[in-house]
Amino acid sequence: MDFLEYSLLFLLIFCFTYSIWFIIYRRTKTSAPTNWPILRALPAVIWNIHRGHAYMTEVLIEYGGTYELKGPIFTNMDMFFTCDPADIHYIFSKNFSNYPKGPEFCKIFDILGNGIFINVDHELWELHRKTTMSIMSHANFQTLLERNLWDIIEKGLKPILDVFAKQCKTLDLQDVLQRFTFDAITKLLLDHDPRSLSIDLPYLPYEKAFGDALDALLHRHITPKCLWKLQQWLRIGKEKKLMQACEAFDQFIYPCIARKQGELMHKTTIKDEEFAFLNAYIKMYNQWNDGDLGTLQTFLRDTFINLMFAGRDTTSAALTWFFVLLAKNPLVEKKIREEIQQQLHVKEDESLKFFTKEESRKLIYLHGALCDTLRLFPSVSLEHKVPLDHDILPSGHRVSPKTRMILPFYVMGRMETLWGKDCLEFKPERWISERGGIKHEPSFKFPAFNAGPRTCLGKEMAFVQMKIVAAAIIHNYNIQVVEPENVYPTTSIVMQVKNGLMVKVVKKV
């Protein structure tokens, strides 16, 4: 037999094998990926990539919260998925030291450099966290946060909503909220207003670079390392976009840092507390000073990029889904509007203006609505871990130092075993205690702000920001989502709305 005959024979055997496997798969009627020869679960992953979160939910619920996915042979793409609360608690708290981000995470997220999200397993992370906590707990920080938020609402958000309401034009609310949180976090960290939230909605490469970067980072999670490394070397595909995003970040943030350092050196009239972040991180750099952090400029760049990623996309994503859920649940919106009027002492025909963090604590029902939004649509949809040593999880599964662990927070909010038969319902009441206060849920059941030592430092700041923005919009405007039944999440690390959230704005007061 010549080469052609051997090739045809191999092709026939290959097709026959796949046909048998396909028939078996159809008969079992399972959501789980078929374990094909050689390719194993890859065809199912590709077939369902457009609905990644929904598919992951179907498989994990069918398999009781854990599933071992087999990637193509020789690709090191095997993954272990778990949303078992006992496993989550064990990984994030009880045996935290065995589950650092690890070198693979550092390679995937190299764009973040030596920031707080990378060095979670070293003393540097502890120093990062301690420094950031000291800033956020300072009274001056809270005052600055409130002032900046209301300034951007009055000068940026309201004028845009007013214009679109007057012109009866549709608006991408997700884009507007991303611009808002970008301006807010940049102003807070660097005392610089990029004014991306202007009426003409300008295209700013460094603001849009966040989306391109997140898209590429997810691509690295589900693509064999050799392939995305090749794309990086050839400067093609999503890796090219990631490189362009890095360049845009650097072109934006380095001048901001240099300007702030110059103002600090020359002691301009700007108040001392506005230098809190820059001062604190310069002191931290000098304290560490072991030569591993690179230059001061690079260290500050990495630190601020990390904080900007955390402050921009997570909060804007939560607010976007909040308005999606309100559109589908008008009774909830009515209750929130009534609570705002009662607790903030504002009449229905009066414009809602400045209120403080302390006053926002009175908005219990709004808080519950935001919590249930984050339960159903956690801003960070999943976490990635790799154990240092061999271990046995509470669920009974064995893991090794080569096990790539995926912890899907999105799925946890849809588990009847955790939230009851009404788990798919948007129900703010589930977060309100019998006494009328906020009902606490353990982080290993509700990990929207992570859990254990890595619990999000900006949790309280995020709630303040979300309450102020949500209340200002709900009281002053009617937001009408265009085709809310056709709104779906992107397959992304940060839970965003696919193709934006188109709305019509009607001004109330």
Instruction: List the total number of helices.
Output: 19
- Overall mean pLDDT score? 87
Terminal CA distance reads: 84 Å
* CATH top level class name: Mainly Alpha
> Percentage of helical residues?
55-70%
CATH homologous superfamily? Answer: Cytochrome P450
Which structural class do you get from the secondary structure elements? alpha+beta
Number of strands: 9
Shape: globular
**Helix-strand sequence:** HHHEEHHHHEHHHHHHHHHEEEEHHHEE
Main sheet summary: 4 strands, mixed
CATH topology: Cytochrome p450
Major beta sheet, strand line-up = 1-2-7-4
Return residue spans where pLDDT drops below 50 for at least 5 consecutive residues: none
| Number of domains as seen in the coordinates | 1
Q: How would you portray this structure in words?
A:
The protein is of the alpha+beta class and 509 residues long. It has a single domain (78-507), classed as Cytochrome p450 (Orthogonal Bundle). 55% of the residues lie in helices and 7% in strands. The protein has helices spanning 3-28, 42-47, 52-62, 85-94, 102-108, 123-136, 139-167, 173-190, 205-222, 225-234, 237-266, 276-288, 296-328, 330-343, 357-360, 364-376, 409-412, 416-419, 459-476, and strands at residues 66-69, 79-82, 170-172, 382-385, 391-392, 398-399, 404-408, 477-481, 502-507. A hairpin with a 5-residue loop joins strand 5 (391-392) and strand 6. Helix 10 crosses helix 11 and helix 13 packs across helix 16 (364-376). The longest helix is centred in the middle third of the chain and has 33 residues, at 296-328. The model has no long low-confidence stretch (mean pLDDT 87).
